[in-house]
Amino acid sequence: MKLAWLCSHESYQPEVLLDHAVLAEQSGFDAVTGADHFHPWVDDASASSFVWSWFGAAAQATSRVELATSVTAPLYRYHPGLIAQAAATLDRLSGGRFILGVGTGEAINEAPLGYAFPGYRERIARMEEALRIIHGLLAGEKLDIDGEYYRAQTAKLYSPPVGNVPVWMAAGGPKSATFAGQHAEGLITSVKDPADALERVIGPYREAAAARGASTTIMATRWVVLASSDDEAWEALAPMRGLRAPGRLETADPMVLRERADAMDRQEILGKYTVVRDLEGLAEAYRPLVSEVGADYVAIQVASAEPASTIKQIGSQVLPALRDWAGTG
């Protein structure tokens, strides 16, 4: 089992996150992840830098940790070929440490740039076509494609990856999980109830992968708020409070999500997160992802008032416990 730290691009500016990535490596994490956003979840206490530029800097600032998008949507504002090129470049800059995490996206990252954000059926159809292009280019192929959604003419990567770049897909339900098992090399899933995740997501993913004789890799994630009081928890959660507002997948303006979140009772929003008061509670919050889910990667996604201090404390006190529970300590 490997342990990852999420550098929240919706919460902090890129120069701060670069320090966090270096600190995560120094503190014993095995991987660093970052989401690809154009807009954040709120408009008043947030950030939203270009994750691909940031990963280039992170590749040079670190030497050991794996780097993974969690996640990018190669469907609208990007041609899939550009994502393949970006992944290959980062793989070279990092010496083979890059993992491409993909998902079907949210309107908040597409609609502001003038792209439509249709329903799931079209998005998953686009993903199938996109992954054919991405896998082909990463494998060194020269592509001529006239698809329903994308075209390519003698497309080839002339700065190919140094090795195999795995493609992991985010899924929150059985349809996407099955698709991931059929078309990707790994699964990224957010786990609140381990039994539900095993039944609805991880099980279908494993079955689909087994049907094609493919190996599986599972990254389990969970948002946790570390705070000594509810007031501190609300402060720590400020950049992410719109993530739990109604209509987040279809909304383009973070102002709208902020207004919706602030119209809700604070306890209702806090209740949608796992809130812990100390590091022992934090370790216990992630323990089911190790002992019940049996994830290959556990992504630590923590909102706190002092993130740098939190990274150090998790490295010294939480990571050893999680590795002991996994039998990898």
Give your account of this protein's structure.
The protein has 329 residues and is of the alpha/beta class. The protein has one domain (2-328): Luciferase-like domain (TIM Barrel, Alpha-Beta Barrel), CATH 3.20.20.30. The protein contains 12 helices and 11 strands. The chain has helices at residues 14-26, 51-61, 80-93, 107-110, 120-138, 174-183, 194-211, 230-237, 254-263, 266-270, 279-291, 307-326; strands spanning 2-6, 31-34, 66-69, 98-102, 143-146, 151-155, 167-170, 186-190, 218-226, 274-276, 297-303. Strand 5 and strand 6 form a beta hairpin. Helix 2 (51-61) packs parallel to helix 3 and helix 11 crosses helix 12 (307-326). The radius of gyration is 19 Å and the shape is globular. The termini are close together. It comes from Phytoactinopolyspora halophila. This is LLM class F420-dependent oxidoreductase.
How would you briefly describe this protein structure?
The chain is an alpha/beta fold. Helices cover 44% and strands 17% of the residues. Helix 2 packs parallel to helix 3 (80-93) and helix 11 packs across helix 12.
CATH architecture: Alpha-Beta Barrel
Biggest sheet: strand arrangement? 1-2-3-4-7-8-9-11
Cα distance, first to last residue? Answer: 10 Å
Number of domains: 1
Please compute the radius of gyration using only Cα atoms: 19 Å
- The total count of strands amounts to 11
How much helicity do the residues have?
40-55%
CATH class: Alpha Beta
β-sheet strand percentage: 15-25%
Q: Give, in order, the helices and strands.
A: EHEHEHEHHEEEHEHEHHHEHEH
- Low-confidence runs of at least 5 consecutive residues: none
Secondary-structure-based class equals: alpha/beta
Pfam family, one: Bac_luciferase
GO molecular function, one term: oxidoreductase activity, acting on paired donors, with incorporation or reduction of molecular oxygen
Protein name: LLM class F420-dependent oxidoreductase
Organism: Phytoactinopolyspora halophila
